[in-house]
Amino acid sequence: MRTVLILGGTSEARALAAALADDGRWRVVSSLAGRVSSPALPVGEVRIGGFGGPEKLAEWLTEHDVAAVVDATHPFAARISASAAQAAPAARVPLLMLRRPGWTAGPEDAWHRVPDMPAAAAAVAASHGPVLLTTGRGGLAVFADLPHRFVIRAVDPPDPPLPADAVVLLARGPYTLDGERALLREHGVRTLVTKDSGGAMTAAKLTAARELGVRVVMVDRPPAPAGVPTVADAADVLAWLNALS
Q1: Could you give phi then psi for residue 96, rounded to 5 degrees?
Q2: How many CB atoms lie within 10 A of CB 77?
Q3: Residue 114 belongs to what H/E stretch?
Q4: What band does 24 get if pLDDT is binned at 50, 70 and 90?
C-alpha cells in the first residue's frame, strides 16, 4: 500500500482523507500544523507539528517512502506551501495542491480588496467602526493603535497586542446566517475584515454583511507557489493519484 501525505487541517483535507480511506488503496498520513487547539482530526494516521523546513520535510518524505503529497492547507498557510513546493521535487515526490475557490463579490457587495494585513489596517483606519475582525488569531498587531471599537472572533485566544477597545469572541465554524446577522446587529458592526478563505463554512458573514450594508475589507490570498498543479476538490485528487499508480 503506497503512502500519501496530506498537508492539511482544512475541511477539504479531512474530506480527502476520508475518500482515500474508503478507496482502500492508499495509506493516508495527515499532517496538521498544531496551531489550533483541539483540531477536528481526519481519519487515518495523523502527525501534529511542523517538519522544520523544506530540507527536513524532504528527508521525512524519503524516510517514510511517501509516494505523493497533497497540499490541502489553508489558502493563507503560505510557509508550509512554499516548503512543500521545495521539498517534494527534492525528494522526487509528486505534489498536488488542493485549494477551495476564493469568494467573489456580487454587484450588491461593498467589498474593498487589499493585498495583506497592513493594507487591511490602513483600510480600516479610513472606515467606520465598530469593526469585526475574522482573520484568525495572528497578525492583529497592525490594528492595535487604531481608535475603533473591535470585535475579534477567533477559534483560539488571539495573539497580543490587540486594540485597546476590543471584545474577543471564541467560536468555531460553521456559522449560520441567522447567527451572523445577530452578531453584526448586536455589536453595531459597520466594517468586516476577513481573509479570502473561500468555502461555505464561513461564508454566511458575507451574506449578512450584504444584507445589513456592512462594508467588507477582503484580504487577498498570498500567491501559490509557481509550478504546482492545483485542483479544487477531492475527486480531482483521486483521479490524479490513480494516474500515478
Answers
A1: -130, 140
A2: 20
A3: strand 111-114
A4: confident
